[in-house]
Design a protein that fits this description.
Blueprint (H helix, E strand, L loop, with lengths): L23 E4 L2 E4 L4 H4 L1 H5 L10 E4 L2 E4 L10 H27 L9 E7 L4 H14 L3 E7 L5 H10 L6 E5 L3 H4 L13 H7 L2 H7 E2 L2 E2 L2 E2 L3 E2 L1 E5 H7 L7 H11 L1 E2 L6 E6 L10 H11 L12 H12 L16 H6 L3 E6 L3 H8 L5 E5 L9 E4 L1 E5 L6 H11 L2 H12 L24 H5 L4 E2 L14 H18 L4 H19 L3
Helix pairs in contact: 4-16, 18-19
Length: 511
């Protein structure tokens, strides 16, 4: 590899008061408020000696006693009769309204028992149950069954089950899957999460990935980026500082590479770039270079051919010629790094646990990925929770999504995951990034999210044969192999790659 090779040098530089008046009766020059009682209705009868509590009265005249007529509404004064009529009409109207409400409102609607099924991938039930229990405290009528799925062929199984109406109500999907899942993803209403909330609370890459046709389709519990892993012992021994630019990266990779003097076989690789099959996250790493060159992944087939040629030439130069620092004879890059045979590796935060499991005593650190001078960007990859458009319990599922978006839920999720391993998934909510500053291994991944973009050239999504990720990755892999193994011209390879990607994009309606 030519240590002076720099890809595209030019690019571096109201209230309850109704206002009604209570009716009044004027008696003897005094004003008396009328209430719906017998006392007020029988005021005139009292003035003639009639007891307000009797239904009849006697009139004394000498020795003659005359039995009075029974008091009826007709015998009341005209003004009193009018008031009584209004009261009766009001009572009747009230009874009718109560009856209508009784018919319209479903009986026991607040106590309806609903069961939601939630499909996940990476976390066990014991991790997710505390979140579920917290939600059920406020929603005791909703039961949630969390089911951890096998990642293999996950997307195909998910679509099949949803389409035959035996799938989950809520499910996890990759951030690049929106075009593939559009027919079964329920748009989230603004009372669940509004566009402004998505913009304010989450990173720009989430806003871009989860928004389409004016709707929001998912809420992430975590997010991740590519970062640079370095073997501290190897770099310190060679007197090399962690590179910040690709210029520095090229020089460091050359310095750190150790070869057998006779066979020229690589004993210690300086960096893992250049090939495809034995580089963990190869499509993501190449996507990183595309994005840093200003190539829009969504418009990849129409993007500048010169920029794409520059990226592939730069990438493959690490494995070509006598100056190579990596080749196809070496172990997969993550394994090589864990064994101490690779000085610099580019990967995601979850790789930390794999490396530590393979080699608990390996000393390594993480840093932001190298950049072009004057630019700052990396690649994001993450998983999102969504609601099935065919769920019979959409109202309840949306209530749970409203719970998942909360800051407190993200914190609890991180805390529960941390109980099973060194740390939880990096926060997808931007306001929580500062809480991870003390974690030297994790924070470099989080610190880059503000400048991250995503790519359909994504590894480890398990989207299945014929899926969007698998399809474009195959075309990309063929392009790299043709350049490295067959010495094909990069210009010819790019034409074939563009045609394949365009076909895959058209199939899934990528815009």
């Amino acid at each position: 590899m030519d240590k002076n090779v720099i890809f595209d040098p030019a690019a571096q530089n109201p209230g309850n008061n109704t206002g009604e008046t209570v009716p009044e009766v004027i008696q003897g020059g005094e004003t008396t408020s009328v209430s719906a009682s017998v006392d007020s209705i029988s005021t005139d009868a009292t003035s003639t000696g009639v007891s307000p509590t009797d239904n009849s009265a006697e009139i004394q005249s000498g020795d003659t006693t005359v039995q009075s007529a029974e008091v009826t509404p007709a015998s009341l004064p005209p003004k009193t009769r009018g008031i009584l009529k209004k009261i009766i009409i009001g009572v009747i109207v009230l009874i009718i309204l109560v009856f209508i409400i009784f018919l319209i409102v479903p009986k026991g609607s607040g106590n309806k028992k609903v069961k939601l099924v939630w499909w996940g991938l990476w976390e066990d039930t014991r991790v997710m149950q505390p979140l579920i229990s917290e939600f059920q405290k406020s929603n005791p009528n909703i039961t949630i069954e969390y089911v951890k799925q096998d990642p293999k062929q996950y997307r195909e199984k998910l679509l099949t089950r949803i389409n035959n109406e035996t799938g989950p109500d809520i499910f996890r999907f990759h951030n690049t899957w929106v075009p593939m899942m559009s027919d079964v993803l329920l748009p989230l209403p603004t009372d669940v999460i509004s566009p402004n909330e998505l913009k304010t609370d989450f990173y720009p890459v989430v806003q871009k990935d989860m928004t389409g046709n004016g709707a929001i389709y998912g809420i992430p519990l975590g997010a991740d980026t590519l970062a640079l892993f370095i073997n501290t012992e190897l770099l310190e021994s060679a007197g090399v500082s962690p590179p910040q630019t690709w210029d520095d990266f090229v020089k460091a990779a050359s310095t750190l590479t150790v070869k057998d003097p006779d066979t020229k076989k690589i004993l210690t690789a300086g960096a893992a770039l250049g090939t495809y099959g034995n580089i963990t996250h190869a499509p993501d790493v190449i996507s990183l270079l595309f994005i840093q060159q200003g190539i829009s992944i969504n418009k990849f087939p129409e993007a500048s051919k010169d920029k794409k040629v520059a990226v592939l030439n730069f990438y493959t130069s690490f494995s070509k010629g006598d100056q190579r620092v990596w080749d196809s004879t070496l172990d997969e890059s993550l394994l090589s790094f864990a064994r101490g045979n690779l000085a610099m590796y580019i990967g995601f935060s979850w790789d930390i646990f794999k490396i530590q499991a393979l080699s608990p005593d390996l000393a390594f650190k993480t840093y932001p990925v190298p950049q072009l001078v004057g630019r700052k960007s990396t690649l994001a990859s993450y998983w999102v929770e969504g609601v099935s458009s065919k769920s019979p319990n959409q109202k309840e599922a949306l209530l749970f999504m409203q719970f998942l978006k909360k800051k407190e839920t993200a914190q609890k999720f991180y805390s529960e995951v941390s109980k099973t391993r060194g740390f939880g998934e990096p926060y997808a909510r931007s306001e929580l990034a500062k809480s991870l500053k003390e974690n030297d291994l994790l924070f470099p991944f989080v610190s880059q999210l503000v400048d991250a973009s995503s790519s359909y050239f994504a590894s480890d999504t398990n989207d299945g044969e014929g899926g969007l990720n698998s399809s474009v990755n195959n075309y990309l892999g063929n392009a790299i192999n043709a350049i490295v193994n067959d010495n094909s011209s990069t210009e010819t390879v790019i034409e074939t790659l563009d045609q394949g990607v365009a076909q895959a994009y058209q199939k899934y309606g990528v815009q």
